[in-house]
Amino acid sequence: MTDTTTWITACRLDDIEQEGALRFDHQGRSYALYRAPDDSVWCTAGLCTHEAVHLADGLVMDFEIECPKHSGAFDYRTGEALRLPACENLKTYPAKIVDGEVRVALG
Which positions fall inside the Rieske domain (predicted)? Predict the structure, then answer.
């Protein structure tokens, strides 16, 4: 079976601080990239589901992103809304590291 997934280079791994987030815009849409404490990478929709604020401006702790506007929180690995006022989960996208680059599958 052939993998037909299209991977897009979003940034270098070093562009994201450990336990940090980075905004990534592609084809008119905004995404958030995360670097976990174990150096794994993750990608979610870039806007909070509560009020469309850019999540990459929020606080990352362990595997959680806190929205900078109303402190709603999500598990960025699964997109699960963890704390009100966020009650709708985030869309997540596959992400991986290849030769020091962060690549995401947005299709």
Answer: 8-104
H or E stretch at 100: none
Grouping H, G, I as helix, E, B as strand and the rest as coil, residue 5 is: coil
Whether residue 3 lies inside any domain: the answer is: no
Residue 49 main-chain phi, psi, to 5 deg = -75, -10
What's the pLDDT tens digit per position in 32-84? 999 999 999 999 999 999 888 999 999 999 999 999 998 899 999 999 999 99
- Write the CATH number for 53: 2.102.10.10
Contact assessment for residue 46 and residue 24, using Cβ atoms and an 8 Å cutoff: yes
Q: Considering the entire predicted model, what is its pTM?
A: 0.92
